[in-house]
């Protein structure tokens, strides 16, 4: 159940709230992500993953229908105010920034 999740697993679930999205990019290399999949709390969208030297192996994930019913802010936000984000989020954000710059450069050069 949600109450039995560790802080690392809760931090992944908080990302859905932080990003205000129904699906987010997660790291396949994170054991907490894989635990949430195994427990049926999140699901991989599609069957493909992406690998990059910046962000590692990632894929799109969504909350399971059952998890959506039980996840509330109160259950996944640490009451002591210590709510760190997963480490791999920084790498995924850096990868997105890199891809946006490449697109901008391509547009500038009319490629």
Summarize the structure.
The chain is an alpha+beta fold. It has 5 helices and 4 strands; from the N terminus they run H-E-H-E-E-E-H-H-H. Strands 1, 2, 3 and 4 form a 4-stranded antiparallel beta sheet that branches.
Helix content: 40-55%
> How many H/I helices?
5
Contiguous low-pLDDT stretches (5 residues minimum) are none
Instruction: Please give the largest β-sheet.
Output: 4 strands, antiparallel
What's the number of extended β-strand segments? 4
Average predicted confidence as pLDDT: 86
Structural class: alpha+beta
Strand content: 15-25%
The end-to-end distance, rounded to whole angstroms, is: 50 Å
Order of helices and strands: HEHEEEHHH
Per the principal axes of the C-alpha atoms, what is the gross shape? elongated
Q: Output the radius of gyration.
A: 16 Å
Search tags:
four-stranded antiparallel β-sheet; 111 residues; single chain; alpha+beta; 17% strand; 4 strands
What this model shows, in words?
By secondary structure, the protein is of the alpha+beta class. 47% of the residues lie in helices and 17% in strands. It has helices at residues 7-19, 31-38, 65-70, 73-76, 88-108, and strands at residues 23-27, 42-44, 50-52, 56-63. Strands 1, 2, 3 and 4 form a four-stranded antiparallel beta sheet that branches. Strand 3 and strand 4 (56-63) form a beta hairpin. The chain is elongated. The mean pLDDT is 86.
